[in-house]
Amino acid sequence: MSYQVLARKWRPRTFHELVGQTHVQRALVNALDQGRLHHAYLFTGTRGVGKTTLARILAKCLNCTANGQGDEGVTSTPCGQCGSCRAIDEGRFVDLIEVDAASRTKVEDTRELLDNVQYAPTQGRYKVYLIDEVHMLSTSSFNALLKTLEEPPPHVKFLLATTDPHKLPPTVLSRCLQFTLKHMPPERVVEHLTHVLGEEGVAFEESALWLLGKAADGSMRDAMSLTDQAIAFGQGAIHHADVAAMLGTLDHRHVLALIEALADVDVARLLSEVSQLAEQGPDFAAVLDDVTAILHRLAVAQMVPDAVDNGHGDRDTVLALAARFTAEDVQLYYQIGIQGRGDMAHAPDLRSALEMTLLRMLAFRPQGVPRPPATPLPLQPERPPADEAPTAANAATEPAPPSQPAEPVPPAEPPPWATDEAPPVVEPEPEPAIPPEPVNEPEPKSEPAPPPAAEAPPQGDPVPPGRLDHAGWVDGFDALGLGGLTRNLAAHCQLESDDGETLVLRLDPSQAAMQADVHDTRIAKALAANGIERRVTMSAEVLDATLETPKARDARVGQERQEKALDTLNRDPHIQELKQAFGATFMENGVMPAKHAD
């Protein structure tokens, strides 16, 4: 017996075997069961979604003789065994007239077709005209069809199918009951292929079926044809590597590896993955398209996890990756990817364009440029021989000889909150930062100097020892060393409270859209680096009008310095002479005072 391709062997024979068109199935089954039949049906949709198959099933329902009697015997469940059902399945039913409109576009063909409409059916209950690709008919052919299509004899049904309903005249559309068949999503294709291959006894890898489902592009017939090809290519089995080679598509796992490297901020791994891709000779523009497509799915996963599509069968992987990126990183990477795709036409070659786009994603991230691995340095510098003078490097690292004591250098000024910490910091060598007092002058004990934390904060409440107040937050903000978006958010915060364990920040509501837990973590790490171990929580609330944020303080100080600089310049005698001698005008907008000017 000759081999029958899967697309024909597994073509649905009844409505209940139809895959993925529940909305059409339900409407037709109810109409058949209730006897509410229209005289003209129009089935639309892309190739391979079941338009012609659906029309043939409907023709069997209208003409099945096993489940009905006489003219009232139409059924929604054709038996498939009676003479009419078998003849329709085998393509030899006299009263099913199938017409390919693409090859019979002339008006003469349409008139010849309609000449037999008035005659009663020969074999079945209804005479069914199935016109495929009906949009290919000429204008004259449509005009010849209109009258019959509107008022056909009671024994005639018209079933029209097209992939382009927009080309049909409105007069034809208004005379038909239209059903639009849906694309087949990859999930539905993989589910059906799994069932078919299980029945056929063909071994397969599930990941290979996802490649076939994606390549089918919504067409179940194309999926079946590709499956036939994959079975032949793999010598009776379907393997992922074979299907990828057959389709010539990029292995989706390589793209996920690039996203993993971006999540780990691992530049070396990122370039290594691109190098491995280059060995396969891929289309690097398509690689970048796949990267941006995954970034889009990551953004969806962060906002609405249930809305993530599973077109590649990797939904769980995408959800896990989404948790490793901040929302601003994903949005930035996507924008850079889109921009890089447009710049590829101007790059020396596509591989370098892809690499530069990926590197740009990491270089422009809010956390800053990832640092390259540092070169290990020796723990102890090598001492020069006693008869040689020390080099400049050694002189900088070795302490001064005892015979020539150097003038003591005061230590760097600590942030304002350093004096408020309860646990004292024990120095390895308690060398005083200022010259010691004479021995004969004992330290006064009657009036001890109050500690800096004793000053009342702007709120009027005393600050407990070891706690941070708002003044300390503002004055020591620059010492935190924050950068990027985290610095911008923190600069718009007021310190609400500090109980020694949790530091609560009040964020300006205008910045609430950029708030994320990752910024709390970064601020906590910056505080810990300055000797303050706290858990940080940030919430968007209306700010206290009597307190300044670090951002507002910087703006005020900058304005004061600007005004001071302008006043100094305006009083400068040389500038006054220039004004009088040449009629010069002082350009105040060009004055830029030094950031740390007195």
Automatic annotation (TrEMBL):
Do you know which InterPro entries this protein is assigned to?
A: AAA+_ATPase, DNA_pol3_clamp-load_cplx_C, DNA_pol_III_gamma-3, DNA_pol_III_sug/sutau_N, DNA_pol_III_tau_dom-5, DNA_Rep/Repair_Clamp_Loader, HLD_clamp_pol_III_gamma_tau, P-loop_NTPase
Question: Which residues lie in Pro residues bias regions?
Answer: 369-383, 399-417, 425-465
Q: What is its EC number?
A: 2.7.7.7
Listed GO biological process terms: DNA-templated DNA replication
Region annotated Disordered, chain positions: 367-470
Q: Name one GO cellular component term.
A: DNA polymerase III complex
Swiss-Prot/TrEMBL catalytic activity: DNA(n) + a 2'-deoxyribonucleoside 5'-triphosphate = DNA(n+1) + diphosphate
Q: Which residues form a coiled coil?
A: none
**Which superkingdom?**
Bacteria
Instruction: List, for all copies, the residue spans of the domain called AAA+ ATPase.
Output: 37-188
Identify the keywords attached in UniProt to this record, alphabetized. ATP-binding, DNA replication, DNA-directed DNA polymerase, Metal-binding, Nucleotide-binding, Nucleotidyltransferase, Transferase, Zinc
Bias kind Low complexity: ranges: 388-398
| GO molecular-function term, one example from the UniProt record | DNA-directed DNA polymerase activity
Report quaternary structure and partners.
DNA polymerase III contains a core (composed of alpha, epsilon and theta chains) that associates with a tau subunit. This core dimerizes to form the POLIII' complex. PolIII' associates with the gamma complex (composed of gamma, delta, delta', psi and chi chains) and with the beta chain to form the complete DNA polymerase III complex.
Question: What does the record give as the function of this protein?
Answer: DNA polymerase III is a complex, multichain enzyme responsible for most of the replicative synthesis in bacteria. This DNA polymerase also exhibits 3' to 5' exonuclease activity.
Q: Write out the similarity annotation.
A: Belongs to the DnaX/STICHEL family.
What this protein is called in its record is DNA polymerase III subunit gamma/tau
Taxonomic source organism: Vreelandella subglaciescola
What is the organism lineage in this UniProt record?
Bacteria, Pseudomonadati, Pseudomonadota, Gammaproteobacteria, Oceanospirillales
Name the gene that codes for it: dnaX
